[in-house]
Specification:
With 331 residues, the chain is mostly helical. Helices cover 69% and strands 2% of the residues. The protein has 16 helices and two strands.
Length: 331
């Protein structure tokens, strides 16, 4: 990265914790929670892999103006961060989205969104092991309360009427993919600017989805744009754009900016705002009413993630100032 004076800024990978950071993650995750409003009806039109492919096509078109002017930054990015970016693009942007899409198609939407609350357990454990994130003494109690509140958001009537079905298994795999992607995203954001990281992430995702479609025999016109899509083209295109932008690109940029200022062990719990919003969406759009205990659980979830942030602030390392070196000569 370069500063305004032309010097090269060496990004220090010391974990930073700013009060605004976790809430940017929460805002991005909350907007991600709106995707059920578009993804569920689009599931009736496209194969899951094809839907995620089109989602990435729109995202890449939006990302190109942000990425192209910043490609020079890659010369100053370590191989480690680049590998984290590839993992984030494949596991988080492509594989995770496909697993979530299939889960929504095969399972109860509310149950599927609740299962994702196991994601922070994965990201916290991985962040502590890979980045050495310190966990405050009170962290465990508030984290456990957040997970318990997330689970309590489920409609137990729907849960009790079905076994651990295929949709739930897909959701558990999705939680694993997204949990590790949170850690990978943190590994990227300590060295890379937010517009470049978020743009390259979806580009890698598009490459992964193109290879997937080619390997599954879906990279042809009839599969990419089926009769149902052609007969309702304006509606389908609108839903695709909303899915990719309002519920995709915009929250991704907020999420990555939040990760610049938040450790992965903290960010994972603020991502649970996705569940809260998703439950509200299934209530408002698909008429799955919230019971009184679900409302209480939502309030407890908000309070618990706020306390996670407060607990983690006590272990945060002081901010490291960027180190500026003279600009290197052109080669």
């Amino acid at each position: 990265m370069t500063d305004l004076t032309g010097g090269i800024v060496a990004t220090v990978s010391t974990p930073r914790e700013r009060p605004i950071g976790p809430w940017l993650v929460a805002l991005g995750a909350g907007l991600w929670g709106t995707e059920s409003a578009w993804r569920i009806p689009l599931n009736d039109v496209f194969d899951a892999n094809v839907l995620v492919f089109w989602e990435h096509v729109v995202l890449v078109l939006c990302a190109l103006p942000l990425v192209l002017p910043r490609l020079g930054e890659l010369r100053n990015i370590s191989l480690r961060a680049k590998l984290w970016l590839v993992f984030s693009g494949v596991a988080g942007s492509a594989v995770g989205a496909v697993l979530f899409t299939k889960a929504l198609k095969l399972g109860n939407p509310t149950v599927i969104n609740i299962v994702l609350n196991f994601q922070p357990l994965i990201s916290t454990s991985a962040a502590a092991l890979l980045f050495g994130d310190k966990l405050a003494r009170s962290f465990y109690a508030w984290a456990a309360l957040a997970v318990a509140a997330g689970i309590m958001l489920v409609d137990f009537g729907a849960w009790g009427s079905r076994s651990i079905d295929t949709g739930t298994i897909y959701a558990l795999l999705c939680a694993a993919a997204w949990g590790m992607s949170t850690v990978a995203g943190r590994g990227v954001m300590v060295e890379m600017s937010m517009p470049l990281a978020s743009g390259l992430r979806v580009m890698i995702g598009l490459v992964a989805m193109t290879v997937t479609l080619a390997g599954t025999g879906l990279l042809h016109g009839a599969a990419l744009w089926p009769v149902e899509a052609a007969s309702h083209a304006p509606k389908v295109v609108t839903q695709l754009v909303l899915l990719a932008t309002l519920s995709g690109g915009i929250p991704l940029m907020l999420y990555f900016k939040g990760l610049q200022l938040t450790r992965a062990s903290t960010a994972g719990y603020f991502e649970m705002m996705q569940t809260l919003v998703a439950v509200l969406i299934t209530w408002g759009f698909f008429h799955q009413a919230l019971a009184a205990y679900q409302v209480v659980a939502a309030v407890v979830l908000l309070a618990a993630v706020a306390m996670v942030q407060r607990a983690q602030e006590t272990t945060a390392l002081p901010d490291a100032e960027p180190v500026t070196a003279p600009a290197a000569s052109a080669r």
